[in-house]
Amino acid sequence: MIFCPKSSLSVKRVLIFAIQTKTSVANSVMKKIFFAAVVTTLLVVFSQSACYYDNELEQYGVSECDTTAVSYANDIAPLIQQQCISCHTPGGEQESTPFDTYNDVVLYTVSIAERVNGIGSIMPPTGKLSTCNVSIIEAWINAGAPNN
Questions:
Q1: Of the candidates 85, 112, 111, which has an alpha carbon nearest to the alpha carbon of residue 98?
Q2: Higher local confidence (pLDDT), 115 or 54
Q3: 60 and 71 in contact (C-beta within 8 Å)?
Q4: Which of 13, 83, 129, 143 has the smallest number of CB atoms closer than 10 Å to its CB?
Q5: What pTM, to 2 d.p., does this model score?
Q6: pLDDT confidence of 122, banded at 50, 70, 90?
């Protein structure tokens, strides 16, 4: 076997180049894996920390429903305007039972109490009122339906 320094030098260069290339490819792959792991971790962390509750009842499990000082002007009239007046007004689907004034509403207190509790056809037709709103209506009726 003949020893040739030039050829051994080029073999060494080829081996060094191969090792460097293999190392740089391995480093590139490792960088991509690391980047993917970091991005995935950040997505998981931020998606979990972004959860929150808008609804106090769902968040704390306690609802403040004050039925101690219910008034027609502050509690019942706005509820009627929001939930009932679209049908219970002249020209509405239930114009025979209008709720335009306090006197109109007082005439139907028994029927209102029954309907918001699901006796007969439930009112409003869009769905049952919240438990708090039903309690407010019942407290007002039980107090004699005052015009206050």
A1: 85
A2: 115
A3: no
A4: 13
A5: 0.56
A6: confident
Residue 145's identity, in one-letter code, is A
- Token code pair at residue 131: 């438990």
- Dihedral sign of CA atoms 137, 78, 107, 123 in order: negative
Tokens encoding 75: 């509690």
For 3, 48, 55, 110, 120, the CA distances from 114, given in Å and listed in that order, are 109, 44, 28, 6, 7
Nearest to 110 by CA among 126, 123, 101, 100: 123
What are the helix and strand counts (H, E) for the chain? 6, 0
Interatomic CA distance for residues 138 and 83, integer angstroms: 16
CA distance 1 to 13: 21
> How far apart are alpha carbons 65 and 28 in whole angstroms?
62
| Tokens standing for residue 106 | 């007082």
Distance between CA atoms of residues 18 and 27, nearest Å? 14
Structure tokens at 93: 């689907």
